[in-house]
Amino acid sequence: LTRCGSAYPLPRLNLTLTGAMYCLLKLAPLFLAVAVCNGWLFGDFVGKQKEQDEISLWPLPQKFQSSAVAFKLSPASFQIVHAKQSSAGPSCGLLENAFRRYELYSPLFTFEPVLCYKRLVYEDYYGVNNINKTDISDFPRFAHRGILLDSSRHFLPLKVILANLEAMAMNKFNVFHWHIVDDQSFPYMSRTFPELSQKGAYHPFTHVYTPSDVKMVIEFARMRGIRVIPEFDTPGHTESWGNGQLDLLTPCYSGSSPSGTFGPVNPILNSSYDFMTQFFKEISTVFPDAYIHLGGDEVDFRCWESNPDIQKFMAQQGFGTDYSKLESFYIQRLLDIVAATKKGYMVWQEVFDNGVKLKDDTVVEVWMGNKMEEELQNVTRAGFTTILSAPWYLDYISYGQDWQHYYKVEPLSFPGTDAQKKLVIGGEACLWGEYVDATNLTPRLWPRASAVAERLWSDKSVTDVGNAYNRLVQHRCRMVKRGIPAEPLFVGHCRQEYKGL
Amino acid sequence: LTRCGSAYPLPRLNLTLTGAMYCLLKLAPLFLAVAVCNGWLFGDFVGKQKEQDEISLWPLPQKFQSSAVAFKLSPASFQIVHAKQSSAGPSCGLLENAFRRYELYSPLFTFEPVLCYKRLVYEDYYGVNNINKTDISDFPRFAHRGILLDSSRHFLPLKVILANLEAMAMNKFNVFHWHIVDDQSFPYMSRTFPELSQKGAYHPFTHVYTPSDVKMVIEFARMRGIRVIPEFDTPGHTESWGNGQLDLLTPCYSGSSPSGTFGPVNPILNSSYDFMTQFFKEISTVFPDAYIHLGGDEVDFRCWESNPDIQKFMAQQGFGTDYSKLESFYIQRLLDIVAATKKGYMVWQEVFDNGVKLKDDTVVEVWMGNKMEEELQNVTRAGFTTILSAPWYLDYISYGQDWQHYYKVEPLSFPGTDAQKKLVIGGEACLWGEYVDATNLTPRLWPRASAVAERLWSDKSVTDVGNAYNRLVQHRCRMVKRGIPAEPLFVGHCRQEYKGL
Prior knowledge:
The structure is a homodimer. The first copy, chain A, has helices at residues 33-36, 93-105, 158-170, 195-200, 211-223, 241-244, 270-286, 302-306, 308-317, 323-339, 349-353, 372-381, 403-408, 418-422, 441-445, 448-457, 465-481; strands at residues 13-19, 23-27, 63-72, 80-82, 121-123, 129-138, 144-150, 175-179, 227-231, 249-254, 257-265, 291-293, 344-348, 363-366, 385-388, 424-431. The first copy, chain A, is α/β, with parallel strands linked by helices. In chain A, the strands form 3 sheets. In chain A, strands 9-8-7-16-15-14-13-12 form an 8-stranded parallel beta sheet. In chain A, β14, α12 and β15 form a beta-alpha-beta unit. Chain A starts with 12 loop residues before the first strand and ends in a 20-residue tail after the last helix.
């Protein structure tokens, strides 16, 4: 991976801090700066002048070595420069933007925000900024470190999405799984089928994502090393699609006549597949990521069962009364449609469970809490790449420090061969939208998702909850300082409390 | 109650809306306007032009009568005026401020915010604002409708407190129970003992409430018909007091020598009582309300038990090993000290349970969830005024719509005489601060506390959860529109989503 701007997977990083009277940060290879600078680095400082709150980093780097050799820093001459051996350079917009961003974080005449080294910099007795000579070698344990946000159960204003992308970057998350539409609303504004949002959004003008909005999300994410994987979940979870697309959904029957309600996508009409072909052709061009999430979870068969045309089709196909065969029939055709757009796809675990034939590069997302380990075994035994979200459904809340539960999860604890373990490429923290919107999403997500971030980034051996608590307390205050309303872990305070409301 | 500005108890209200071609709101008696205008009035409209979302009010008024007679409204001539029979007038600053406040809520050329009648005003087919002739008679079921916020476990910036007073007013809460200090920090800046906050606050400058801050909170609350009752909880929950007041706390012993840690207020030293005398003299002048909350909950006896001087004192007093007697000894002297300031006092239930002799006008707060009904019986049987907070500890969170549990509570369901029931003057929703600060307090409090608001305001017969849900969904959107990040009850949207972060 040598392209400037590629976010996935993250490469290894080697980084050296050296200095003279005025310290000069050297980054090598520099084209990785954005990726690593999404978080903070941890130094095991020797000097007694360091206080507990000056040495915390989140997520913990894989390897670092700090020496007692300290350099004094001068705001006037401190700068971020390209290392000689860097293959990137001033032409790399991604890096230039990152430089600017970290400059802007900086309060005048302090060093705080210089890239990720804030916690390496400390004030000495005379108020002079110091930095110790430090070597850091860092890389993520898992390549896929995602956050799922749901903009259908509640519309999420652009501002909220961008703020959470910022917070994701601070926690080294690199995938925004955008569960953009669902039963409740269809805020994605389609150029090909504008009626989907005109009739399916909560409001056709104020509760939609315009093409420009979507572009902004993608670009804002890209600048922070984050991929955007949109999910257009079918054939279930599609009630809102039916408002703007006639005959897409299955008419449910009450006895011998239509009840007026609708079920999953109608899998027996060619028009459904024609629609999906056009729709996903658009999606494949709007979203640059190599993957699209196609959903495929929780299909309710009752409506299909009630419909005489569906019944007839089942008989013709020899499906008997096994409606999961009909579901697979639909999904199979959909996957072929999406494959033709040259995109890879992710699916929820049911698609695998139902025996649908999947492309080799399919990513299966394991979300069901019961029999999670069994599922991981099965999916990886079949040779499929897997991501895990089951233990990290952050919409479920409870009193107290539930982040510890998320933190204690070991994604590779299931029985399996090394080859199987390697197929688990990461995980996602999911914040489904039933109970969250712009008013409460951000504090509910952070720092609870930070626990998942460290689990997916740091070494498997990083499991000390007490140590994690101490670092996370400070990490959440850093988020607060940057304007992210990350909620407290427990009693205490931040030097700078949240200034918003 | 005829004074302008008195907030407690709230009197009955009679209010008539009449109108000609241009409607004129008449308020009678007008000096009550502020009290009633903390919420919205509900009209059982006849006209088919009303949609569900136009007729919701929270909390539901005691009585209203709406007719089909509608008046058109003109922004140019619409005004709020003093009724002829009003005993108040333009000299009543409270009312003038309320008028101005509701004017400011008003977007240009709409009627939305005119006092509380927003939901009585609706657009007809031609976009003209209409209002139906409506008679409303309203009064609260319970006189004490409080919110407890805790500014010790986490410091709450002034902005957060003021925003929540605003939200309280919108929900007709009329008591801010300010649990201002506790073990973790002492943010109250005392003129008499400045070291209490200098050494006991999380930070002596940024995490304190200056005298000016306190005044602002009190005045902001007063303008909205809200009393401010400060709680200075002793003898337990006082760890932070010890930082700035030498010898106030009991030294704990490990074996025969002091361990270096401290326990509750030292009840055997005269200096403790001298301190309390001076301290509460200040408090009694800073806080104008007739009541001070003195706490008295959860006293941990282990430190007292370890201390040889305390042991000796226990023996001298003939307390044996019953440390609750020592606790009562302390509380008794404290109550006498506070009584001398001419203030009434509130206490947590343990003070009553331990048999401390209380002034007749003491308010006992029942907070323990187990044996709640038994406690209500006992306290009221003894003739004490009571408020209930046990079922409304909003710091305990769970997945789903827990507001319904708060809503279903009937405060007077305990067995007792009518005279006993009358002693229950209200209740409080408590949001203890272990897990909340400026980042998440407001959405966690609202609209969950709104359920308590209606229970304490509306008639006992108002218990339909489905109807409440429909109204509360809209009420929370009104709060969001006014800038309060009240979280969603469930899936859905607000016409205007929250604009903050």
